[in-house]
Design brief:
Layout: H1 2-7, H2 9-12, H3 15-43, H4 45-64, H5 69-97, H6 100-128, H7 139-146, H8 149-159, H9 166-171, H10 175-186, H11 193-216, H12 225-241, H13 243-260, H14 264-277, H15 283-311, H16 313-336, H17 346-356, H18 358-368, H19 375-403, H20 407-415, H21 428-434, H22 441-455, H23 458-466
Helix pairs in contact: 3-4, 3-5, 3-19, 4-5, 4-7, 4-8, 6-7, 6-15, 10-11, 11-22, 11-23, 12-13, 13-18, 13-19, 14-15, 14-19, 15-17, 16-17, 16-18, 16-20, 17-18, 21-22
Length: 479
């Protein structure tokens, strides 16, 4: 927006500082993600979300009241801390509180909600762009920045009325409270079959992780702060010490690397500038074009929600990559030969291809490749890769557009060519074989989990329910 450019000219007019102005939020998000695992276990998922909202709001207020680029830089970094923390804490809370039968749907729904938010934000910018007319008022950019407070405050206030995660309560030894939360959430009495089975499943998962850590790191089981720190540190180090786990780290991190280097976020961040280079004139026209792209990406995510489990991950990722690569090359050709600018329509194909493929499928794939005992830590590494590459893309895109021109899209197009192992429908034995895991970590984890389920009575309880028997088993632990 012109009024923003006038106010922040010293940062916007230089491609290097312009990149930092955009990307510093992603740098904050990367740091926020790394801190969230500890905070979520220490403070609870619920209060971690509250803390992240407070941090986010502080950053938004600083940006909204900014009169110099330094305030935008600082505000966006602080906002990023909250964004990164929320991007991990909220899905974690949802997954641990949601009924098992809808948990998978909520993962896909989250991506749909993200694209919906992107679409809404573009159209808010389009509308506020007219505030002040030709002599655009600073309210044109201060209002959309301030509007970020609305969903944040709704989340922060609303979460206070929500229960603690039953999984976190079990981890803290507060079993009675966890059972009460499940009973209220399912609207069933505590001794009902569904509530009891779900509670025992959570309990079994907690025991599984505790016993897995005791088996792998018996020297760090005294419960002291030092031992807990070293336990977590060595769990992360095991990801690079074991060849098969290192292979999965590379696959997960590379998946998130190439998700960002498909160029979609680069276009999202700098769409008005890019559309100007393609021949579209006028700030309103650029924002309108960006808003249309937001609608396309939102609609394109819907098929992924419906069909990804039927088609499989690999075909979806490969087809999306090839379509995006071809579209980037078309854009590069148009810029190189000074085309008519009609290829702005090609961005519709880029965003639709990303929406049904690399947007949602990457998160599904990186969650499926890990053995159960190391899944949380492996997924956190992949998430940090996502934010770090998001930061790099946002930082370097203005310089790439200035110095490489059409070569920027050639580079993005080349990055789109990547093949993956397919994970749809694979058993644990097959997953171990895919990654050359001679130790059979996935199978060993499953065997340990089955033994724990038998020990605490979960298997017997579930078997009795399957047979239509409502009674409790004598050997079942009293809760």
């Amino acid at each position: 927006m012109k009024s923003f450019d006038d106010r922040m000219a010293s940062a916007v007019d230089n491609t290097g500082t312009k990149g930092w102005l955009v990307a510093i939020l992603e740098l904050g998000a990367w740091f926020g993600v790394l801190c969230t695992g500890y905070l979520a276990d220490k403070l609870s998922r619920k209060y971690t979300i509250v803390l992240a909202v407070i941090i986010f709001c502080v950053g938004v207020v600083v940006q909204t009241a900014a009169f110099h680029p330094s305030s935008i830089y600082g505000g966006r970094f602080v906002t990023g801390l909250g964004v990164g923390s929320l991007s991990m804490a909220v899905p974690l809370y949802n997954a641990e509180l949601a009924p098992p039968e809808v948990r998978g749907s909520l993962v896909a729904l989250q991506q749909l909600a993200i694209t919906f938010g992107i679409m809404v934000s573009f159209w808010i910018d389009y509308g506020t762009n007219y505030i002040g007319g030709k002599n655009q008022s600073e309210a044109a950019w201060r209002i959309p920045l301030a509007l970020q407070l609305v969903p944040a405050l709704v989340l922060g206030a609303g979460i206070l009325f929500m229960p603690f995660s039953p999984r976190w309560l079990v981890n803290q030894g507060r079993d009675d409270e966890a059972l009460a939360v499940l009973s209220r959430a399912r609207r069933l009495p505590p001794d009902s079959d569904l509530v009891q089975i779900e509670f025992l499943e959570i309990k079994a998962q907690y025991l599984f992780e505790k016993e897995s850590n005791a088996l792998r790191f018996p020297q760090y089981q005294d419960g002291t702060t030092r031992s807990n720190f070293l336990l977590g540190l060595n769990a992360y180090l095991s990801l690079i010490r074991t060849r098969t786990l290192l292979y999965r780290v590379v696959i997960g991190s590379a998946t998130m690397f190439f998700q960002q280097w498909t160029g979609v976020n680069a276009i999202l961040y700098y769409a008005p500038s890019i559309f100007t280079d393609l021949g579209l004139t006028g700030n309103a026209t650029n924002l309108l074009a960006t808003g249309v792209v937001g609608i396309v990406m939102f609609l394109a995510t819907i098929p992924a929600v419906l069909y990804v489990d039927k088609v499989g991950r690999k075909p979806v990722l490969v087809s999306g990559a090839f379509i995006m690569a071809a579209c980037h090359l078309v854009v590069a050709t148009d810029i190189c030969f000074k085309g008519a600018g009609w290829v702005a329509c090609v961005f519709v194909w880029i965003f639709s291809s990303f929406g049904y493929s690399w947007g949602p499928c990457c998160w599904i794939l990186v969650a499926e490749i890990w053995p159960l005992s190391i899944r949380g830590k492996g997924l956190s590494i992949a998430a940090s890769s996502n934010w770090m590459n998001n930061f790099i893309v946002g930082q370097v895109t203005p310089s790439m557009m200035t110095h490489l021109g059409f070569g920027t899209f050639v580079f993005f197009g080349y990055s789109c060519y990547l093949l993956h192992h397919g994970t749809k429908g694979l058993t644990l034995e097959e997953m171990d074989a895919v990654f050359g895991d001679r130790e059979g970590l996935g199978v060993a984890d499953q065997e340990r989990q089955t033994e724990i389920a038998n020990r605490i009575g979960l298997s017997a309880y579930a078997e009795g329910r399957d047979k239509g028997s409502p009674e409790r088993y004598d050997d079942e632990p009293k809760v």
